[in-house]
Design brief:
The complex is a heterodimer of chains A (115) and B (541). Chain A is an all-alpha fold and 115 residues long. Chain A is 63% helix and 0% strand. Chain B is mainly α and 541 residues long. The chains are: A mainly alpha (115), B mainly alpha (541).
């Protein structure tokens, strides 16, 4: 299970980094979203992987899942959600103001070969 | 008693909520008064806190009365309160400038301003590293709004870079925090410091990676080379009071580096002690060099000031990187000076830009700015402050920094870079000053002189002044005699004078201030009392 989760986090992070390095706002926003998914899974795993264990104290529990990372992930999800919404709005505004979705505001005709 | 620690957080939060709820009900005037009152109340609260901790106290407030490593601790030690004080003073002046008309564009300026203060104060006060992340996000989200306030192509373009970079930085921050928690099992910074001491040898590598990741994030906030590229465009593009307030934002990164470096990765951290020390000094010196080149090559005063902010971060981190008590004390003295001086120059650049019509703050010979002797004199004063010439506070800060570097093997590097960068700064600022003031001739530019406002601003007529930094809103005026010197714009110059006054006060009160910073540096380098206060103090609080 560890290997599977590590692989998922690694591929999400890899795709996220690749997309963030693109020159257009849409892939960049997608990349940031993938990175936030990756980090949420990573935070979840910092409490070690357990299956079917309760996070709060109960009389019949044989063991416990660490509740703290779950709280951290909850916070991180909320923040990432808000930030993603904001960056999407900003990307739309940049598209409207600059007339292009290039992150540096270069227009199609300035780039040599069009998309 | 210790509950007072949360006041600098509650005040801006409640003020922000109140300003948000009343954004359609109250007039702009009333909301300005409310915001100003809140900022002044914060300043009073911080001054009171300063009195409490100056003796040698550390006030700890455990939120919700959860005992230390499990709950969130708010810690007001000397360093945190020093940063709070700088923030509060800066906020007063930035807001005084903003109410001259910058805030009239959108209803959300005032709530965002208070939320920004909430995030800044929280970042300084928190004793929990995940909470530090949350407050970073709060201050960043507010700063995104403030940065884009007023709109315009340049702001949107610079804002997009700023937001995307900081979102990537936040992700790195979470990775670092997650790794720290996975290895050490705690998020409380005092507890982290204890757990690091008896770490298993196998975990050193992972923890080192986490520590360096954390450093990368803080370096991004502090605008250290090579992560400074977002700063010049963002600071030069936004409105003047926001840029002035942002002068403290890079210092948050420097503060976080200092805190993490001395508390978590301090002397007692075994194999991880002084984790970033080998890279911090070269990077800080390189930052100074690159920033000095930027200062020299900038073609507008705002952009030049933005590079001066980068330069001040380099100087500050050089002082912190020395790692000695004298070095950190010098840095803590230089920190308020550089913040106030850069903020004042941002505001003054806006005053100058308003008087130069379509030329704005471009460093080209242009019309004579209104009240040129006064504005030029202020520019000269600020240039002397920033370049670090005697007898003002910039000189004192740099002198203490150089004296602290004397005892160390890195002396030649620090001396050569600090002194030559100082010379380059003097050259660049002298050139700007002579272009803006001496070579200002013929009041004509393109047949017309663009004047922002011909009626002298008076204190009670602020509400009608809806001009912002957009040239399009300026009124076209025939050049004939409208260019005659008008009375200085006192309502706009007052915040600049205030900030310059704080710098002069740093000189006048250099004795007590250096005593305070020396004691603070001592406390920072010996975190036992901090750890004791956070972890052991739950019984007495």
């Amino acid at each position: 299970m560890e290997a599977l989760l590590a692989g998922i986090i690694a591929s999400l992070t890899g795709c996220g980094v690749y997309l963030v390095l693109r020159a257009y706002t849409f892939p960049v926003v997608l990349g940031l979203t993938l990175l936030s998914y990756a980090v949420n899974l990573f935070l979840f795993a910092t409490g070690r992987l357990t299956v079917g264990q309760p996070a709060v104290i109960s009389a019949s529990a044989s063991g416990y899942a660490d509740p703290l990372p779950q709280a951290l992930v909850l916070t991180a999800i909320v923040i990432a959600f808000g930030m993603t919404a904001f960056v999407i709005m900003l990307a739309l505004k940049a598209r409207a103001e600059l007339g292009t979705d290039h992150v540096d505001g270069h227009r199609e005709d300035e780039r040599g070969q069009g998309a | 008693m210790n509950q007072a620690v949360i006041i600098p957080l509650l005040l801006p939060l409640l003020a922000a909520i109140a300003l948000l709820l009343t954004r359609r009900r109250l007039t702009l005037h009333a909301r300005r008064a409310l915001n100003l009152a809140a900022v002044v109340a914060e300043l009073a609260a911080v001054l009171w806190l300063l009195g409490q901790v100056a003796g040698d106290g550390i006030l700890v407030y455990q939120v919700g009365n959860w005992p230390a490593p499990y709950g969130i601790s708010l810690v007001a030690d000397r360093l945190a309160v020093w940063m709070l004080l700088i923030t509060a003073l800066l906020a007063c002046c930035a807001l005084l400038y903003a109410v001259q008309g910058t805030d009239s564009g959108s209803r959300h300026f005032h709530p965002l301003f208070q939320l920004q203060l909430f995030g800044l104060n929280g970042a300084f006060l928190t004793g929990d590293i995940f909470n530090l992340f949350v407050f970073f996000e709060v201050l960043l989200l507010a700063s995104y709004g403030l940065l884009l306030h007023g709109g315009g192509r340049e702001r949107v373009r610079a804002g997009l870079h700023f937001v995307v970079l900081n979102l990537a930085g936040s992700t790195l921050f979470l990775f670092a925090v997650g790794t720290l928690y996975a290895i050490l099992g705690t998020l409380n910074m005092a507890d982290l410091a204890l757990q690091v001491r008896d770490i298993a040898p196998g975990d050193v590598g992972v923890l080192r990676a986490a520590g360096l990741l954390l450093f990368t994030v803080f370096a991004l906030k502090a605008a250290l080379v090579p992560l400074y590229l977002w700063l010049p465009a963002a600071y030069a593009g936004t409105s003047a009071p926001v840029a002035a307030l942002f002068a403290i934002m890079t210092k948050v990164g420097a503060y976080a580096i200092l805190r993490a470096e001395t508390l978590i990765f301090g002397d007692d951290a075994g194999p991880l002690a002084h984790l970033v020390e080998p890279v911090l000094l070269p990077l800080a010196l390189l930052t100074m060099v690159v920033a000095a080149l930027g200062v020299l090559s900038a073609r507008g005063l705002r952009r030049q000031t933005a590079y001066l902010v980068v330069l001040s971060v380099g100087t500050l981190l050089t002082a912190f990187a020395l790692g000695t008590q004298a070095g950190i004390a010098a840095g803590l003295y230089y920190l308020p000076h550089s913040t106030f001086a850069a903020a004042a120059l941002f505001l003054l650049a806006d005053v100058i830009a308003r008087g130069r019509g379509a030329l704005r703050d471009r460093l080209d010979p242009g019309p004579v700015v209104p009240a040129a002797p006064l504005v030029g004199g202020l520019f000269f004063l600020l240039a002397v402050l920033i370049a670090g010439l005697p007898p003002l506070s910039g000189f004192l800060g740099k002198w203490m920094l150089l004296r602290a570097a004397l005892e160390l093997p890195e002396t030649p590097w620090v001396f050569s870079v600090v002194l030559s960068v100082g010379l380059l700064t003097i050259i660049a600022l002298a050139r700007s000053g002579s272009l803006l003031f001496y070579r200002a001739g013929g009041a004509v530019w393109g047949g017309y002189l663009l004047l922002p406002s011909v009626e002298p601003a008076n204190a009670d007529g602020q509400d009608t002044c809806v001009l912002d930094s957009e040239p399009g809103t300026a009124t076209l005026t025939a050049t004939a005699d409208a260019a005659a010197p008008r009375c200085p714009d006192w309502s706009r110059l007052a915040p600049v004078l205030g900030l310059a006054g704080f710098c002069l006060a740093l000189v006048a009160a250099a004795g007590p201030v250096t005593d305070f910073t020396a004691a603070t540096a001592d406390a920072v380098l010996h975190p036992e009392r901090y750890i004791q206060a956070v972890l052991g103090g739950s019984g007495e609080s």
